[in-house]
Amino acid sequence: xxxxxxxxxxxxxxxxxxxxxxxxxxxxxxxxxxxxxxxxxxxxxxxxxxxxxxxxxxxxxxxxxxxxxxxxxxxxxxxxxxxxxxxxxxxxxxxxxxxxxxxxxxxxxxxxxxxxxxxxxxxxxxxxxxxxxxxxxxxxxxxxxxxxxxxxxxxxxxxxxxxxxxxxxxxxxxxxxxxxxxxxxxxxxxxxxxxxxxxxxxxxxxxxxxxxxxxxxxxxxxxxxxxxxxxxxxxxxxxxxxxxxxxxxxxxxxxxxxxxxxxxxxxxxxxxxxxxxxxxxxxxxxxxxxxxxxxxxxxxxxxxxxxxxxxxxxxxxxxxxxxxxxxxxxxxxxxxxxx
Length: 339
Prior knowledge:
Elements: E1 11-18, E2 23-24, E3 33-34, H1 38-43, H2 48-51, E4 53-62, H3 69-80, E5 86-90, H4 96-106, E6 113-116, H5 129-141, E7 150-154, E8 157-160, E9 165-166, E10 175-176, E11 184-187, E12 190-193, E13 214-218, H6 226-233, E14 238-243, H7 251-260, E15 266-270, H8 288-294, E16 297-298, H9 304-316, H10 321-333
Parallel strand pairs: 1-4, 1-5, 5-6, 6-7, 13-14, 14-15, 15-16
Antiparallel strand pairs: 2-3, 7-8, 8-11, 9-10, 11-12
Helix pairs in contact: 3-4, 4-9, 6-7
């Protein structure tokens, strides 16, 4: 991939994985299913051809919920192979907050890698797919987007992959970025960013045949640790615990955590969706201080879903245990990139 010279329009490649933006209802009736190809998506978007020279590629035609981490790693390799100034990946919004972050972990190119989708199917009034695709292409084509890694663009907002979350099941403004907010806005076919671009180094891709099992468990009132024990007995390679508040769990679960850290990495995140896991404010059994003393790895500002993907990627790449801890701790402390 590489930026060209002269006055030519940027070249942007659009790769479609499916999702709501591609879904149409069957002629026999019933719910919408993914059917449209990438070429169908780009064909009739007003103004799209004026933003960039486009190429369209259909990678998959599936719901976002069907994608796996290995699928996403393959998309990252596909994107790296494109001769383009930017890449747009279209997919279902259900899993964008996860897939975009995993793409970001594997992306070391300066060219923008932009993920988008739609909250409404093409056949309904007010379908948002064309506007989101146009905005994503604007971002992918912009020189100002270079060096910012993977970005998520919907509703004319630009989100950093490490912070974006889907926080509403039906709203057009379903994607938010917590306390720090979006990194940019799209307007009049251009993008404006606030703040600098910062990037962590690219993680190594999955080793051949390696697909670690990493569980994500959210604690709850009365949690005795039974599910965590079942996960351990099933032989999982790692666990992410989504604790109460700033990283707290019931006392009974805390005792099981002590056994879990002897078998593999246990990452502590918060289930709130905003704010970091603390390090030394509370001292009761099951508090963040107690769990850290037992050997858990703090996720910092990373939400549980991002923390799970980071742990999966590190284990899939064969990272040594000490480096797993150091990497998650550092990236959790500064999810936007190193200072």
